[in-house]
Amino acid sequence: MTDALPDDPDGALIAVIGMAGCFPGAADVDQYWRNLCAGTGHITTWTGLPGTPEGHVTAHGLLAGADLFDADFFGFSPREALVMDPQQRVFLQCAHHAMEDAGYGSVSCPQPVGLFAGGATTRYRAALESQRDALPFVDDWQIHLSTAPDFLTLRVAQRLRLRGPVVTVQSACSTSLVAVHLACQSLLAGECALALAGGATVHVRPPRASYVEGGIVTGDGVVRAFDARGRGTVGGSAAGLVVLKLLADALADGDHVHAVLRGSAVHNDGGDSVGFTAPSVEGQARTVRAAQLVAGVDARTITYVEAHGTGTPLGDPIEVAALTRAFREDTGDAGFCALGSVKTAVGHTDAAAGVTGLIKTVLAVEHGVIPASLNFGVPNPDIDWDRVPFRVVTERTDWPRGDGPRRAAVNALGMGGTNAHVVLEEAPAAAAALPDGRPQLLVLSAKDAAALEAVTDRFAERLAAPDAPPLADAAWTAQTGRAAYRLRRFAVCADAAEAGRVLSARTPGRLLDAAAPGRAPSVVFLFPGQGGQHLGMGRDLYAAEPAFRGAVDEVCGLDAGLGAGLRAVFAPPDDPGRQARIAERLATIEIGQPAVFTLEYALCRLWESWGVRPHAVLGHSLGAYAAACLAGVFTLPDAVRLVRERGRLLQSLPSGSMLALELPEAEVEPVLPAGLSVAAVNGPGRCAVSGRTELVERFAAGLRDRGIDSRLLKIATAGHSALVEPVMDAFEKLVSQAGPQEPRVPFVSDMTGEWAAEGQLTDPAYWSAHLRRTVRFAAALRTVTAGQERTLLEVGPGRTLATLARQHPDVGPRHLVVQSLPHPNDEAGDHLTMLTAAGRMWGAGAVLDWDAMRHGARRRVKLPLYPFQGRRFLVEPREPSPASPASAVSPSAGDTAVRAAGVHLGEEPVTPSRPPAAAVPADAAVPPAGGPPQAGADPVRRIAAVIAAGLGLPAVEPHDNFFDLGGDSLMATRLAAWIRQEFGIPLTTADFYTGPTPHDLARAVAARREATP
Of 543, 675, 915, 988, which sits 20 to 30 A from 997 (CA to CA)? Predict the structure, then answer.
């Protein structure tokens, strides 16, 4: 990358921020680049095929795995996937990968995204038509929708939720580079913020291109661009896409910029050529020069051109002549510009040819390496090499930066005269990664278990590599640049190396799994009371999290006398003596209670900033005031004043203590001495008693003698006992002055154990009674979890309430219990605990505000792409041509086994058989190959069997939802027609929407029958 920012006063430069593709010999862009740099070709040849002239071969750049597709990932039924042209399936997967590679893989991308692309004409429609009797419920309209090039881009837009301009482009061999030009124009016009551009040519069974002397197809299977021996080109299959964005926006958003598109142009020869298929020097030169002028560059600064370079005796000299004419407008120099053609390595990929060359050139500009143009040995004598600006690159060549950025061009020439030319240059240097000393939450997800394991392995390898990106950048890219699927996995790690080790080893306790439900559980904030406070609680958050620190400072600013003491709790001094004095004050009610409230309030604000908002709140004793403040019952100033005055009043009382013990309330009450009260019932066998200290200590000793464990709590008062009665009236007056309001968030009372009734929390007497009466936390937990999937989040120091919740009999697998902060004895720090809690909630389906969780500007970095779990979906022609290369080659494996024609639905091939013609209604599709269900069978079973056949599923259950199984309106229309014919009732497509299960449809059939006279 160049250190200097390009001159872009008008904001007209376009950044390439993502790429994806599959090519002969390469399943992805990385392998493609490695192959190019290694100088390996990937054109497959066959000899001796019938119809091939003696001494000639048949050749094609094969695309391995073109018949494999992850139908489940994209929500297609097996039958839909089978009928869809493999070209469209491959292109859809590439489009998803391109968005992921750019760091915008989330399906909820808020920006308008455009798509400009085109595809080649394939033979898949003919194959489908030859097998119509084996394809139940498939008609001409569905075949058209599934195979016509018109729908190549539209299907991607629908599945990836692209909301910008979506246009299918067709200009023959220049299609995909024309698409790039149109995408740039759309970005510049403000029609979209991101644009995908590219094309696809995918032949699972390679087409037979007959050799004709003087034609465009070579007879020896070798593409020799610009070589005297060049006799034509070879076809190839590929799909490729680039993701484009305005450069200024890309730099501002931290995108990875591979290269910069400075300008492009598209023109047609307009009759300047001698024939429809003949190239024109004038037309091509006009296009090249227009692109240079739009780019605003001197042609002398362009030092590499990726040519169309088909290797034909006529086309190559004309292309070089046209390029030379355009370059001569700026320079008379010769031999300074490298020239190459990727077709020599992978063949002519037709509609994908332009983007195939563009991706190669983008990578060359980015890495400073020009791969060799293969098969060049004898310069074409029709090109005056001593006088033209170009030299063919015959070996991998380093491309050092000169006085300015590396600059290149890509040329694409369409049969019929539409030419496209793009000028691009090296990207500006990326901003340095900002340090972030916090642990990072790394999230992974997939739609099935095999994919989750694969993505974990890929991320482990990437993060363990020497050139791994900073973990903060990798984590943010994974959080915001990948969709969150049902199966989820996360780890909280300090750096990339640690993350790589944790992922690779699947470290128990560090790498955590979850399966998100269809809807995220509602979150209940649990606020503990006094007792868990300790010096330095929230220290890391106060130092590093602005939302937390701001909330603490907000509370401290409300009371100058209290503020200094509180801040020292969260940011204690280094001096041990001062720490001891602060800890001593923290143990008092005067500081301890405001400190707990402040921590809980600050944690609330931090969680809310991270996107976690409560659906209900529940406080335990003192914690009820934080709950009430969050719910809007008290304003923050009033809540702070009440907490401080509450502490002051309690501090004025005689010395008291609280004792926790493992006994049910029913067993405690009969043995409780006079003067002690049951202060809290925290579980079926967990209580706390309260009273004067000497009585509490005597009671504890008696329990000990009976072998019953108990524990004194770190609370220097006897709350919820008769000791507080002298201050209840005074406190009630204070509450009255505060003017409590109705809660804006559902509030569970820890005093009653029930949802707060209207008017209850606004009554000052409630809050005075709250000082005295027993805390019914166990009952409150039962109330808040009843019949609900809940996330119970403890918002306070330690894990007191989280532990009580996990032990509660009504809290089970439907409930997630998490804590915000570590126990003071835990080795984990604040951030590790907070991020683990965030990860567990994300695992349960919560939507987090990732941008709010990051610190400063972060960069999108390159991470592994989703590992599609492809299964084979292919309809082969019933009677393939004996001259077809595919009759001697497995299109997915590349072996030489002859495959019989058949229908391959999923993993197992299905041999078609013809159903009885009499079973086919005139207005419906063909029923299943084995014939329709017997007329006497149960209607539910008959309808389920037909839905299964229509969708290509092995079976459908009575209550399976047709649309959840992958059905759509088109298939619903066909099935409704069958049901009308089969049952003789007026069922319509609309019935599938009101009752989409076989059971519902059978009921509709029965109801219509009863209504029919």
Answer: 915
What is the number of other CB atoms lying within 10 angstroms of the CB of residue 30? Answer: 14
User: How far apart, in Å, do the first and last CA atoms of the chain sit?
Assistant: 80
Partners of 691 in beta bridges? 657
Which of 81, 199, 65, 239 has the alpha carbon at shortest distance from 146?
Answer: 81
Q: How far apart are CA 31 and CA 25, in angstroms?
A: 8
Closest by alpha carbon to 287, among 185, 150, 154, 178?
178
pTM of the model: 0.88
Q: Give me the helix-helix angle, 589-609 and 623-631, nearest 10°.
A: 40
Residues 6+ apart with CB under 8 A from 355: 21, 176, 177, 179, 180, 197, 198, 199, 240, 241, 242
C-beta of residue 987 within 8 angstroms of C-beta of residue 980: yes
Task: Report residue 811 as tokens.
Answer: 């809290």
Element (H, E) at 115: strand 113-119
Q: What is the dihedral of CA 680, 682, 688, 691, to 10 degrees?
A: -10
Closest CA to 74 of 59, 89, 52, 57: 89
DSSP for 768-801 reads HHHHHSPB-HHHHHHHHHTT--EEEEE-SSSSHH
Residue with token string 């194959």:
127
**Of 182 and 986, which is predicted with more confidence?**
182
DSSP 927-972: --TT-PPPTTS-HHHHHHHHHHHHHT-S---TT--TTTTT--HHHH
Alpha helix stretches (DSSP H) within 534-632 = 539-544, 546-557, 560-570, 576-586, 589-609, 623-631
Torsion of CA 118, 122, 126, 132, to 10 degrees: -60
Per DSSP (E only), the strands in 832-926 are 871-875, 903-905, 908-910
| H helix or E strand, kind and range, residue 803 | helix 800-807
Burial of 53 (0-12, 13-18, 19+ CB in 10 A): exposed
Chain centroid to CA 1008: how far?
A: 45
The one-letter amino acid at 635: T
Distances (CA, A) of 416 to 273, 313, 348, 411: 9, 18, 16, 15
Active site residues: 173, 308, 348, 621
442-460 as b/e: b if 16+ CB within 10 A: bbbbbbbeebbebbbebbb
Q: Give the integer Cα–Cα distance in Å for 695 and 673.
A: 8
* Nearest to 72, CA basis, from 519, 490, 478, 446: 446
Question: Residues for the chain: how many in total?
Answer: 1013
- 6: closest CA among 368, 346, 407? 407
Tokens of 995: 């009752």
Least confident of 20-29, 211-220, 317-326, 833-842: 211-220
Residues with Cβ within 8 Å of 734's Cβ and at least 6 positions away in sequence, in order, are: 641, 642, 645
Give dist(CA 624, CA 622) in Å, integer: 5
pLDDT of residue 211: 65
Asked if residues 686 and 660 have their Cβ atoms less than 8 Å apart, the reply is yes
| Amino acid at position 831, single letter | H
- Would you state the structure tokens that stand for residue 285, as one six-digit string? 């030169």
Q: List, for residues 533-592, the tens digit of each pLDDT value.
A: 889 999 999 999 999 999 999 999 998 778 778 899 999 999 989 999 988 888 888 889
Type of residue at 108: S
Q: Are 982 and 950 in contact (CB under 8 A)?
A: no
Which contiguous run of DSSP H or E holds residue 338? Answer: strand 337-340
Q: Which residue has the higher pLDDT, 182 or 132?
A: 182
